[in-house]
């Protein structure tokens, strides 16, 4: 029995470890700012992407996404967006389909309709508020 052949060994089972699923982060939409600080616009505006208003806008605003009114920005008229972030001033009618946030130092005199309304300390609000869940 010098070198005897051993019985054929059964092939070893290969255990494979599945790779983790690839994590795909959502692409953030770029915030556009078509209304600079020194601009005054009297028009009806329609946006698909998030927008920041740093100048003065009078008229109707419709956004399929979010509208941010910067500290030096103002809107006057009727506005509708998915979300609003107000740091500056707004007058007229504001309708948020998701959320409306009034930040410290803002001044809002408007009829507001939103399913979620956040009024931070130091925000100035005069008008009517309707918190509705559709």
Structure characterization notes:
With 134 residues, the chain is mainly β. The protein has one domain. The protein is 0% helix and 53% strand. It has no helices and eleven strands. It is globular, with a radius of gyration of 28 Å.
Task: Record keyword descriptors for this entry.
about 130 residues, mainly beta, eleven-stranded parallel β-sheet, about 55% strand, globular
Q: Report the structural category.
A: mainly beta
According to DSSP, the number of beta strands is 11
Count of alpha/pi helices = 0
Instruction: Determine the mean pLDDT.
Output: 84
Spans of at least 5 consecutive residues with low confidence = 22-28
Portion of residues in helices?
Answer: under 10%
Q: Roughly how many Å apart are the termini?
A: 87 Å
What is the approximate shape? globular
State the domain count.
1
Strand content: over 45%
Return the string of H and E elements: EEEEEEEEEEE
Radius of gyration (Å)? 28 Å
Largest sheet: number of strands, sense, barrel closure: 11 strands, parallel
Per-chain topology:
Elements: E1 32-35, E2 40-42, E3 45-47, E4 51-53, E5 56-63, E6 66-69, E7 74-86, E8 89-102, E9 107-114, E10 117-119, E11 124-131
Parallel strand pairs: 1-4, 2-5, 3-5, 4-6, 5-7, 6-7, 7-8, 8-9, 8-10, 9-11
Task: Write a short abstract of this structure.
Helices cover 0% and strands 53% of the residues. The chain is mainly beta. It has one domain (32-131).
